[in-house]
Amino acid sequence: MASDTPKSLSTHDFYYDLPEELIAQTPVEPRDSSRLLAYDMANDAITHAHFYDLPKFLRAGDLLVINNTRVIPARIFGHVEGREGVIEILLLKRVDYTHWETVMKPARKAKLGGRIIISDELSAVVTGIGEYGARDIQFEFDGVFEDILDKVGNMPLPPYIKEKLADKERYQTVYSKTEGSAAAPTAGLHFTPELMDRLRDMGVDFATVLLHIGLGTFRPVKEENILDHKMHTEYYEIDKENADKINSAVKEGRRVICVGTTSVRTLETVADENGFVRPCKGETSIFIYPGYKFKCVKGLITNFHLPESTLIMLVSALVGREKTLEIYREAVEERYRFFSFGDASMFI
């Protein structure tokens, strides 16, 4: 696995040109009919296929690590008490039962101590102010917060998706379970229960981890030198059953292939130098970029990521920066669909 480091570690070293029409606006049906660009790292070979062809690229004994987080309806709208005009609130991380870290727009309206009216059942008070529209808030409500949020909240689709989502479940993986994410682990959107059964029948196993995704993961890096970029923290969990599965694969020399960059970040946060993980939970702010030495992960299934984002930097750490950009240029030429509802790439 390559780990070439750009001499300057400049953010622009991870830029590529993407025609706007290649940004996917809606998911394909069925889920596994999306296209798949598979890159064989050992043989430096690209294969163009579809996601339902995934069994052709895997073998018995492979372990796929999936993230079973579930997206909450994290985008809500309200107005500052006594003032006109809509304010948008995006829930990023739950601190406790009533307190949340959020991003607001326009944030200048959300003053410290100000109350935001969302509905007859829900309001919030601004308790802290951070950079780039970040606001800490405390919700006020009567009843069960999750039930209220389900009524007033909207699915937090990325801003580059302009089309309305017909079915909210299409922004959830079929194996989503634990609510808490502000965005979907989009690499997993391509899986169907039938495809997962086919993989199990051929001897491919699945391990589950949890990482609740915040929007910091997807934001372009604003600093010129990527080493100056600070990652937001995200909550993760690995239980004993799944840690044991991962450790058995590592011990037996079987491939540990992550479905999504969130699974990569979870494993690499907790893995020791020999690639073994432990059951644990906590917060991670790991930033993986070229020069990083992977401890546990041997392969990756993911979508095509934004230019100059931490996610394309992570892929570049695994594959090599120049090779990653070469693959992305080919994906553009082949008219792959990009980003959250786009096609998949695979590096093994």
Annotate the secondary structure layout.
Blueprint (H helix, E strand, L loop, with lengths): L34 E6 L4 E6 L12 E5 L1 E3 L3 E6 L6 E8 L4 E7 L9 E3 L4 E8 L4 E8 L3 H8 L25 E4 L11 H9 L3 E7 L22 E5 L1 H12 L4 E4 L1 H10 L9 E5 L14 E5 L6 H10 L1 H13 L10 E4 L1
Parallel strand pairs: 1-17, 3-12, 3-14, 4-11, 14-16
Antiparallel strand pairs: 1-2, 5-6, 5-8, 6-7, 7-10, 8-9, 9-10, 12-13, 13-15, 16-17
Describe the structure using short key phrases.
348 residues, alpha/beta, QueA-like, Thrombin, subunit H, 2 domains, nine-stranded mixed sheet, six-stranded antiparallel barrel, 6 helices, 17 strands, globular
What do these coordinates show?
The protein is α/β, with parallel strands linked by helices and 348 residues long. The protein has two domains: 11-71 and 166-347, 3-Layer(aba) Sandwich (QueA-like); 75-152, Beta Barrel (Thrombin, subunit H), CATH 2.40.10.240. The protein has six helices and 17 strands. It has helices spanning 145-152, 193-201, 240-251, 261-270, 310-319, 321-333; strands spanning 35-40, 45-50, 63-67, 69-71, 75-80, 87-94, 99-105, 115-117, 122-129, 134-141, 178-181, 205-211, 234-238, 256-259, 280-284, 299-303, 344-347. Strands 2-1-17-16-14-3-12-13-15 form a nine-stranded mixed β-sheet. Strands 5-6-7-10-9-8 form a six-stranded antiparallel barrel. Helix 5 crosses helix 6 (321-333). The termini are close together.
